[in-house]
Amino acid sequence: MSEINEKRTEEGAEEKIGKYREMIGNSSAVFLFSYGAREAGPESKIIRPDSYANLDIRGFMGGGHAVVIAAAEIGQYFPGIKLVTSVFVDTKSSDGKPVRHNLFEIYAEELKRLGIPNEQIELERKSTNTITELIEMVKLARIHGWNDVAILANEVHVPRVKAMFGKLEELAKRINPDDSQFFEDWNYFRGLGGLNMHFLESEEILAERDDRYLKIIEAARKSPEYRRRKKAEQKGIQDILNGTYGKK
Question: Does the structural domain 25-242 have CATH classification 3.40.50.620?
């Protein structure tokens, strides 16, 4: 490689790092929000994060692999930041039967395959959905003294995650009013002016990582599964703002 090309490569990396720094701020940890998992092949027993083409147990578009790749990209450039995987959840096998997966382990293994060292990965083992991911995030942040954290999710999901975080105390009182640890930790951060949050979209990071992801992202955006998930996410946001989320 010529000196000119080397200089361009270095300048490109510096520009990318600068963009990522703007996204994550001073975050001590990035929490990967989970989607689903799938078998690596018809005869394979290896379970991997799902793609945009896969549907989760509710029939909505997946995209866990996009989140993991984006997280590995951030982790590569910021080795001091923790990557937190989460969720123990119902999903489907290739034959359509319900199964249970430890998504926190599956996503962690994928991070390792992408070059992230084990010591950079933190497992959050208790959450089962978006609300509990947020609740357990607050608890872990208090335990580790993380006053500045980021959430990494797919673009179609981020608006609802933001809306949930804005109403998290109210939602937590509804689903588990006896969770004294959460309310203690929530009040602790409130006393500090609040937990400093950053919301990251996996697609924005993937586009920075490699232009080739743009075609995959555009194809996903044009799919009926994307439109269906977006409609459901928008309905969820309205329910959160109306105070009816999760009510039967």
Answer: yes
Domain ranges of the chain: 25-242
Token pair for 167: 């109403």
Sheet containing 148-153, strands listed edge to edge, beginning at the edge strand earlier in sequence: 121-124, 82-86, 29-32, 148-153, 196-201
Instruction: Note down pLDDT in tens along the chain; length 248 residues.
Output: 455 344 445 667 889 999 999 999 999 999 999 998 887 776 667 889 999 998 876 788 999 999 999 999 999 999 999 999 998 765 555 565 656 668 999 999 999 999 999 999 999 999 989 999 999 999 999 999 999 999 999 999 999 999 999 999 999 999 999 999 999 999 999 999 999 999 999 999 999 999 999 999 999 999 999 999 999 999 999 999 999 987 76
pTM for the model: 0.90
Would strands 121-124 and 82-86 be described as parallel, antiparallel, or unpaired?
Answer: parallel
